[in-house]
Amino acid sequence: VVNFNAGPAALPLAALEQARDELIDFEGTGMSLLEHSHREAPYEKVHREAIALLRRMLSVPETHDILLMQGGARGQFAIVPMNLLHAGKSADYVVTGTWAKQAHEEAVLFGNMAGAKARVVVSTEKDKKFARIPTKDELAFDPSAAYVHITSNNTLFGTQWQSYPETGDVPLVADMTSDLLSRPIDVSKFGLIYAGAQKNVGPSGVTVVIARKDLIAGGRTDIPQIFRYKSFADSESLFNTPPTFAIYVMRNTLRVLEEQGGIEALTRENAAKAKLLYDTIDASPDFWRAPVEKASRSIMNVVWRLPTEELEKKFLGEAKAASLVGLKGHRSVGGVRASIYNAVRLADVEKLVAFMREFEKKNG
Ligand code: PLP
User: Fold this and answer.
1) What are the binding positions for pyridoxal 5'-phosphate in this chain (predicted)?
2) Does the annotation count 161 as an active-site position?
């Protein structure tokens, strides 16, 4: 099958094959990696390699630490304010989708407990559609904000920041759950980046955090240790038992992606995949309709509609029968969504496009 699921999502076959081959006896140790201590060499090597791969592939500067945590991106919705939202301060949130909205709500909750505030700078929730990224003029940030929070790619609505906002001395925090490692980023421009791994970089269970060292050092100390970035930075993310197998499969995935040519090759292929799909949609505006503003289109999650809901249902059913799975739009949005993360190759999108043209011919 070709897997267009939004997450957990497709993983490179070679990464899974390696996990299969090594499952019972990891590197001749007579034990599965699942059975190894996280404090001994066989696992530690995997752990360090995963972090080193992320650092190399994303060109993470020495000013930033890479942390491997748990709790997913939603965990970070709470953990970011717990660390960075000091008493008496306010944080700025740009609300471009459901995830961004929930991140803001979590910061409000923590702020209520901790003597701080979280403000919505702007929301693009017109008619609940979130069909665009805000313009520069709409982004009037508070110059004394604790941080500015954005969602880099809006998985449900298919929008993506094409360039990141300037926030001056205010740290920029980005949820990159659905586009980390899909295009180059200048990490030095960010105070903190976080991503649940389960879309572009690995399986579910591990959360990648890339944070400026001074922000980690200055984080709140009146929160439980397990939620402090500092606990993870000081222990090379071995503060407690990490999700060892998830990190191992992420390591395998990163190895494959690096061998494929790393971020440069991924950027090229991801752009080609998205172009092919959007060109197909745009070629028949009477049949396919992309609701997102062109300038805000995501290269990771492509959403579109058909003339009627009946046709959408038929399309999804026939696609599934043709082994093209995971194309149903999010339940809150409807329509069709193709998630074309790193492990979905150009040839896979070509299959989808061929199927679409055939479907349009029969039903258009
Ligand atoms: N943020 C974004 C942009 C997402 O796409 C998702 C999941 O789909 C989440 C947050 C929630 O992630 P998690 O399930 O890891 O908490």
Assistant:
1) 73-74, 99, 155, 175, 198, 240-241
2) no
Tell whether 267 is in a known binding site. no
Query: Is 7 close to ligand 1, i.e. is its CB under 6 Å away?
Result: yes
pLDDT band at 363, cuts 50/70/90?
Answer: very high
CATH 3.90.1150.10 residue spans of the chain? 262-363
Cα of 196 vs centre of ligand 1, distance in Å, is 6
- Asked if omega into 8 is within 30° of 0 (cis), the reply is yes
> Does the C-beta of 73 come closer than 6 Å to ligand 1?
yes
According to DSSP, residue 328 is labeled B
How large is the ipTM? 0.99
One DSSP character per residue, 242-259 reads: --HHHHHHHHHHHHHHHH
- pLDDT for the residue 126: 86
Assign domain 262-363 one CATH number from 3.40.50.2300, 3.40.50.300, 3.40.630.40, 3.90.1150.10: 3.90.1150.10
Angstrom distance (rounded) from CA 130 to CA 96: 6
Does residue 127 carry a pLDDT above 90?
no
Let me know: does 6 contact 337? Beta carbons within 8 Å: yes
Dihedral over Cα of 44, 49, 52, 58: its sign: negative
Q: Which of 74, 150, 151, 331 to mutate to test the pocket of ligand 1 (most atoms within 8 A of CB)?
A: 74
Structural Rg of the chain based on CA atoms: 21
Domain span(s) for CATH 3.40.640.10 in the chain: 13-259
What are the CA-CA distances from residue 126 to residues 69, 146, 321 (Å)?
34, 27, 35
Known catalytic membership, residue 199 = yes
User: Model-level pTM?
Assistant: 0.98
Tell me the longest C-alpha to C-alpha distance in the chain: 63
Question: Which residues on neighbouring strands pair with residue 324, listed in sequence order?
Answer: 2
